[in-house]
Request: fold
Amino acid sequence: MKVLYVEDEPFLAKIVRESLESRGLVVHHLPDGRGAVQACEQFRPDICVLDVLLPFDNGFTVGKAIRGQFPHIPIVFLTAKDQTGDVLEGFASGGNDYVRKPFSMEELIVRMHNLVRLSSSEKTAQGPGEPIALGRFRFCPLRQEIHLDDQVRRLSHRETQLLNLLCQNANQPVLRKLILDTLWGNDSFFNSRNLDVYIARLREYLRDDEQVEIITLKGVGYRLVFG
Reply:
């Protein structure tokens, strides 16, 4: 696994880099985010791990820039900021996961492997550029877009992952725990609340077609149905 790691604190960066490399990962470290997009072009990482409180541009800004150019590279934010607004901003900036400092290296590595595995399976399942017919909508996972007639709605990476998972199991129950474990890495209360937010967003995006519905199965999960 190739990791682009952006961290400005030298001592922490050294520990994390050596820990990852000792487990066979290839790490390209940057002390700030100014060269992150160029590094992605040249290094072609499998995943990006970004500190949030960086000099010059913060990690969220760097994450947005990477997501705009490389929509399929998973991004993990590392930060001591733990307010709900900060976490939601991280996901809105293109993050796939949000790990609070101080963190366990073992947990970080497991989360990274899960995200890379999920990203690879999505590419394999969809094939390049194949849209999914969703009632009157066309859902383009690789472009992270929903099309309705001449209207295009751009989705965040997490919204794309969630809708893609529901589409892959269309008309079938999808366990809430499965969604949380697959997309967030665990079913903690905080992640569960995030899932509620993303489900509400997707319902709002799809409301223009009454035959497309995300049904809540109380105590079980969700089912996506469409005509």
About this structure: Residues 2-124 form a domain with the Rossmann fold fold (CATH 3.40.50.2300). The mean pLDDT is 87.
